[in-house]
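Sequence in, structure out. Go.
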Amino acid sequence: MPFKSILALTLVAVQMASPVAAQLSAPGAVCRPPGADVDPRRSLFVTELEVLESALSLEDVLGALADDIGNPAFDALTLWQQLWDTQNTGPGLGLGFHCDDQLDASGAPSLNGFPIQCPRNEGDEINVDPFDSNLPSFYEPIALVNRLDLAPTDGANCGEFRAIFARTGGSRNLLIFEAVLPNPAPSCGLKGCRVVAKFWERLSRIDDPATRAAALRQFYLRGFPSRGIEPVIQAAHFNVGTGQIRTNQFMTGPEPQRWQLREFKLVQLCEAIGNCMPLFAPVTTKGNPFGALFDETSGLQKTADFQRHYLTQVENLAMNNIHRFFASVPDRFNAGQSTSQTNENNYPFHAANSPRFTNAVNVRLNQIGSPLSAEHIVRRSMALSCAGCHRLNNSAPANDLGAGITWPQSLGFVHVHENLIDIIDGQEHFAISPALEDVFIPQRERVFERYLDKVACRDCPLPLVAADPPPPYQISIESRFEPNAELGPDALRAIDTELKSGISEENIGGTRAVH
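Output:
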C-alpha cells in the first residue's frame, strides 16, 4: 500500500533508557561469591508448559503493543491481521504493506532487489482467530528465552528477550518476538544489565511453577520500574534500530508450500505527532545473503561486490570454534526470505558454479594457514543462515564444517517443537533440538554465569533522582526521500541499518548474533 501522505516516521531511540530508581542497588542486590550456577531450563530457555500457559499469551503480546501505540483503530486482532496481510498482494485489507509493493525489473515481487514468494499461504491467517484456545488456529507460547549473551560489550543494551508462539492445529506456523531490552543504567556500561541478569538467575531458585510464571509475566508485560527495567513487550523494542519479529512458515494452501523464515519490524508511521499507524513491515532476513550471490555466473548486479566482500570474511569463518566463527553480512546482500527447501538458500550448490570464486577462497585459506577448504567455508556460511541452521545443515555432507566441527541437528525444521514433549524433573516441557540442548544452550549458560560472576559484587553508582527520558527520536521522511515518495521496506531497511551503525558488533557471547 503506498504511503504518499506520510510526513514523519516516529521511532524511539535505541539508546533511550527508563527512569532509574534508587532501589536498583538495594533490595535483592546482595553480594555473593562468584560461582553462579543456573538451571538453563529456568533461567535461559523456558519451555515448561505449566509456566508458559499462564506467563504470556499471544493476545497479551499484541494487546500490549496496540495499547503502547494508542491508536484506537488498532487492537490485538487488527495487528494480527495486518501482520499476515503482508503475505498477500495489495490492496488486501488496506492496512499496510503487501508482498508486491516492490517489484524488480521484470515485474516480480522483490525485497532488497531479490525475489520473494508472493503471495504466501500464510496470508490467509487474516481470516482466523489466533487467541481462542478452542480453535485449531490458536497460537500457544512454546518458549520464553533469555539472550543476555547478545548484549553488546559496550553495554548499549542488555541483549534480546524472546517469546515464541506456535499454531496448535492444521498447518505449522511459528512466530517469534525478539525484543532488544534497553540498559537500565547505560552510563554503567555492561554493569547496568546486572539487575536484568539477577532477575533471570533467581528463577533457577524458585521451585513453584506458578511463582516463576508470575515473575516472567511481570518481566515481559510490566517490567520492574523500581529497578529501571522496562517491559520487554513494547512497540519501541521491535522498531527499526532495535529488535525484530521473525516467522517460521510452512502452511498449506493454494500456493506452493515452502518452509521459509522471514523477518519484520514494528514501525509507527505518522502523519503528525500523536497520529500514528502501527505497522508490521517486512524487512531483510539478517545474516542470509541471497544464495545466487555465491554463483559467479548468476548475472546478478551485486554478485561481484558480494564475492569481494566475502573474501574479507574468510578468516572469521575459519575460526576453529563452533561458537565463534561468523561472517559480517552487509544488509545490501541479505534476501527477503530464507528458504529451507529448494536450492535457493543452498550456498554450496551455488558455489559449485564458481571456480574462480572458490579458488580465491582457497588462496585466502592458504594465506592464513587454515586446513579448511572453500567448501567448508561456504557450508559454514549456510549454517549461519536461518535455512541452514533450521534444516539445510542437518545432515552430511553439509554438516561437515571441517577441522572436526560437525553442525548439530535441529528437530527437522524447528529448534523448539510444538508437538513433542519432554519430561524434565517431572514437568512437561516442549522438546528442544539437539543443537540447543547439547551445544548452544550450554554455551549460553557459560556466558551468562561468567557475566554474573564478573558483576556479582560490582554495583554501579546510580543517581538518587532519575533523569527524565529523552523525547521520542523522530526521522523526517522528507529529509531522506523525495517529497511524496513511497515509503517501502527498502527505505525502512536503510533506516534500520543507519540506526544500528553505532552499536558494537561484539557481544558478550562473541560476535555472532544468531543461534
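Check: The CA atoms of residues 86 and 98 lie 4 Å apart. The chain has a mean pLDDT of 87.
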